[in-house]
Design a protein that fits this description.
The complex is a heterodimer.
Chain A lengths: L6 E5 L11 E7 L2 E8 L7 H7 L2 H9 L6 H16 L5 H30 L4 H21 L8 E2 L2 E2 L5 H25 L3 H7 L7 H6 L5 H5 L6 H4 L12 E3 L5 H25 L22 E9 L2 E9 L5 E7 L1 H6 L2 H5 L4 H11 L3 H5 L1
Antiparallel strand pairs in A: 1-2, 2-3, 4-5, 7-8, 8-9
Helix pairs in contact in A: 2-3, 3-4, 4-5, 4-11, 4-14, 5-6, 6-11
Chain B lengths: L1 H6 L4 H38 L15 H10 L11 H19 L15 H10 L1 H11 L3 H32 L4 H7 L2 H4 L7 H17 L11 H4 L9 H26 L8 H4 L1 H29 L5 H30 L6 H7 L10 H26 L8 E3 L9
Helix pairs in contact in B: 2-12, 2-14, 3-12, 4-5, 4-6, 4-12, 5-7, 6-7, 7-10, 7-15, 10-12, 10-15, 12-14, 15-17
Classes of the chains: A alpha+beta, B mainly alpha.
Chain lengths: 370, 413
């Protein structure tokens, strides 16, 4: 009697396409995947415990290291939580600056994430390096305003640490002139490629109900056909003043997530345009001068605030006992929760699909393991 | 060459020996140096496609980069896994390289032939098939699951793509009436050196099919599945390091080079081109070599362009592409090739044809009426077949994405 034997393979923790130290214990029958067990924790560095020891301000740079692609968004989410907890007013101009940084982060994150996904698919890095080129320009802008390219540590309670000046605005406008060309190039490169369609269509399908059950958020959820975007559902900062659309997929496969991310980059571009237009009229300074940053004390209580990070809903939950540091500190990391749906998305597909599906979820291990 | 040496006063056995040694040295050196240049060429071209510079520090324009890398790999530690089958593990790269170098024996460098076998086409195919043995040895001997998967994938891929590749050559053999690469090159010398097969409908389809199948044979994107680095690390090469890895690398690039050479010979007229016959002698030979290398590197540039652009296929898609797309088209192409040959040359069985359209073409004179009919007929057959197959495999393009600007709380409506 002929029979096949199942083979157990460790993909990771050292593997070219696990996006960090992530391990998948994969059982395959030939090339077909029978079972997948995600194993993580290799990058655990006690982030949440540290958050309970540090003062509120000391913890701000630590949030940079969560999703190291989007430190601006992490700062924003953390600052919002503490502002909610301590009841701090944020001036309008600071809100606009935060929104500009968030949307720039979204563009750079999606550009590189889709590049990495195409790289996992086997396209020899052209899409990735085109994305990296745009990312590099945006990182230069971040460096100018915050002093660091990736670990920005830019937000403060009640605003941001430094104002943006005219040079920044002119450079940003120059940068934005190039962005639509990049979007078009990126779409034109592979969007209708027969091979990409074959590799991405109906692969890694995550049905709507399952996505909701796993409480998946971000482009993965929108790819599955749920129009849920915190910028619309619970407009924070000044997002209610912009006109933008929420792109939504229909099938929930890799291709949908790919399309959603490209469309989101275009929407972010629209938001940036409007924000730059409205910025001169914004009232207030870049920071609320009344807030004592170093010795901020929050009244006893709890707060949860969330923002739409490029990867999904990023929330911070902080319990205060009235002292200068958090009593309990918890991060709702989108990568971690989106990753929990991986095994269900991968079953029945082949090994080659697994890396592509993982790439389409867009994880950062710094956020998963904390 | 041996004759020339005998005339110089060498004993006949000695002149044969010396001539062989010179030829072997030229093949080995030409192949390896060509491969070194090829890596530089590929890296530089891909860099410019990706908005960066590529290797440009070592030597002028980075031309010495491959040499520095060769020295680096040679001085690296040569590690063998503890539980590997030591002998098989050691022999696998040797087998791979040996198979590749063998195919260089019959490749015509322009009009200069190292060896003129009368069944050179078969020889090339046979040596190409030897690769799968090396791959399987590497995959099995390494005692690594990724290597095993890569080896299995490689063998399955090579075996599937041998068939369309071999059958894509049949039209060329039919049209030439010979399997010798020299004869094939000579047969494409009409029209002032521009009578290449690629300019006929049969040759054009055959060229496209052969080149596509050869991409799979040479493990180039989009068929680089056996060494898919994002899935199975490096496939069958995972457990190799240092010199053994370099030998695999060398063999891969040399086989890619060989594929370009063979394609240029079979379909692009080899060293033929305007002015080669007029010059004649050594100058003509050099010009033909230049033409030949230009064509080959243009083909390699196409490979580089594909590599820089498209993702790779999945294993099952690769198989269905070979069996459902390439193979039917190859069979149709053989049919139209036989029509072509029947119309142009062989009509003794059907004298009416001669009555209507005049005598068949000879080497000296072309029968234009017959040529026109052959072109129209084969073009119709081939274009029809391609259109039909494209239509059969075409998937409906459904509209995926929609956008909304409503403010949805949870979108559960």
């Amino acid at each position: 009697m002929l029979k096949t034997e199942e083979l157990q393979i460790n993909i990771g923790p050292q593997h070219p396409s696990t996006h960090g130290v992530f391990r998948m214990l994969v059982t395959v029958d030939g090339e077909t995947l029978v079972d997948l067990k995600p194993v993580f924790g290799y990058l655990h560095r006690n982030h949440e415990q540290l958050g309970e020891v540090n003062t509120y301000l000391q913890n701000m740079p630590f949030t940079d290291r969560l999703d190291y692609f989007n430190s601006m968004v992490n700062n924003h989410a953390y600052a919002r939580t503490i502002e909610t907890l301590a009841g701090v007013e944020v001036p309008e101009r600071a809100q606009y600056i935060r929104v500009i940084m968030d949307e720039l982060s979204r563009i750079l994150n999606h550009a590189t994430a889709m590049g990495f996904m195409l790289g996992d698919m086997g396209a020899w890095q052209t899409a990735l390096l085109w994305g990296m080129r745009e990312r590099e320009k945006i990182l230069d802008m971040f460096e100018y305003v915050s002093g660091a390219r990736m670990m920005c540590n830019y937000c403060r309670f009640g605003g941001v640490v430094r104002d943006i000046d005219d040079w920044f605005i002119t450079e940003l406008k120059k940068l934005m002139q190039g962005l639509p060309h990049y979007f078009d190039d990126f779409e034109g490169l592979l969007l209708n490629s027969e091979i990409l369609l074959a590799r991405a269509r109906n692969i890694g399908v995550l049905p709507k109900e399952l996505a909701l059950a796993y409480s998946v958020t971000g482009p993965v959820l929108r790819g599955s056909g749920v129009a849920y975007d915190i910028r619309k559902a619970e407009p924070y900062a000044v997002y209610d003043r912009f006109k933008f659309k929420v792109p939504v997929g229909t099938v929930g496969d890799v291709y949908d997530r790919f399309l959603v991310r490209i469309a989101e980059m275009r929407e972010s571009y629209k938001i940036l345009e409007q924000a730059l237009e409205q910025l001169p009229d914004a009232t207030g300074g870049f920071i609320n001068p009344k807030v004592k940053q170093q010795s901020l004390k929050a009244p006893a209580g709890e707060a949860y605030a969330r923002v739409e990070s490029p990867k999904g809903e990023l929330g911070f939950y902080v319990v205060s006992d009235g002292s200068g540091s958090a009593y309990r500190y918890k991060v709702r990391a989108p990568s971690f929760i989106n990753l929990s749906a991986l095994a269900d998305m991968c079953k029945g597909y082949t090994i080659a699909d697994v890396v592509v599906i993982l790439g389409s979820i867009d994880i950062v291990m710094g956020e998963v393991d904390r | 060459m041996a004759d020339a040496l005998t005339q110089l006063g060498f004993a006949s056995w000695l002149s044969v020996l010396i001539a062989s040694i010179i030829k072997v040295t030229l093949i080995l050196v030409g192949g390896s140096v060509g491969m070194m240049f090829l890596t530089w060429y590929e890296r530089r071209s891909i860099s410019y496609m990706q908005d960066r510079r590529g290797p440009n520090r070592v030597g002028p324009q980075g031309l010495l980069q491959p040499i520095s890398e060769a020295i680096k790999t040679m001085t690296k530690e040569d590690a063998t896994p503890r539980d590997a089958d030591k002998i098989v593990h050691f022999l696998a790269p040797v087998v791979m390289l040996g198979a590749t170098v063998l195919s260089f024996a019959v490749i015509p460098w322009g009009r200069m032939f190292p060896v003129d076998l009368n069944a050179a086409v078969l020889f090339v195919i046979a040596t190409g098939g030897l690769h799968s043995i090396g791959m399987m040895m590497a995959g099995w001997g390494s005692n690594n699951k990724f290597a095993l998967l890569g080896g299995m994938r490689g063998v399955a891929q090579l075996i599937s793509y041998e068939i369309p590749q071999v059958m894509a050559i049949i039209p060329v053999v039919l049209m030439t009436g010979s399997m010798s690469l020299q004869k094939i090159v000579e047969a494409q010398n009409d029209f002032a050196g521009l009578g290449w097969y690629v300019f006929s409908p049969v040759g054009l389809l055959g060229f496209a099919l052969f080149f596509t199948a050869s991409l799979a044979e040479g493990e180039r994107t989009p068929f680089d599945i056996p060494e898919a680095d994002s899935e199975i690390i490096a496939g069958y090469m995972t457990e190799y390091s240092g010199m053994k890895f370099a030998v695999f690398y060398l063999s891969n690039y040399m086989s890619n080079l060989a594929v370009c050479f063979i394609t240029a010979t079979l379909y692009l007229g080899g060293g033929n081109g305007p002015g080669v016959d007029a010059l004649g002698g050594i100058a003509g030979g050099l010009l033909s070599l230049i033409y030949f290398l230009l064509k080959s590197f243009a083909l390699f540039f196409v490979m580089v362009l594909i590599r820089a652009t498209v993702p790779r296929l999945r294993v099952d898609q690769l198989m269905s592409f070979a069996w459902k797309f390439l193979l039917p088209l190859v069979l149709v192409n053989i049919l139209s090739a036989s029509f072509w040959v029947a119309l142009l040359r062989w009509d003794q069985q059907w004298p009416k044809l001669t009555e209507w359209f005049g005598a068949p073409s000879t080497a000296d004179a072309t029968n234009w009426g017959r040529l026109a009919i052959a072109i129209v007929l084969t073009l119709l057959i081939n274009a029809g077949a391609v259109a039909l197959i494209m239509r059969l495999t075409n998937r409906n393009v459904q509209k995926h994405l929609y956008t909304t600007d409503e403010e949805l709380a949870l979108g559960l409506s």
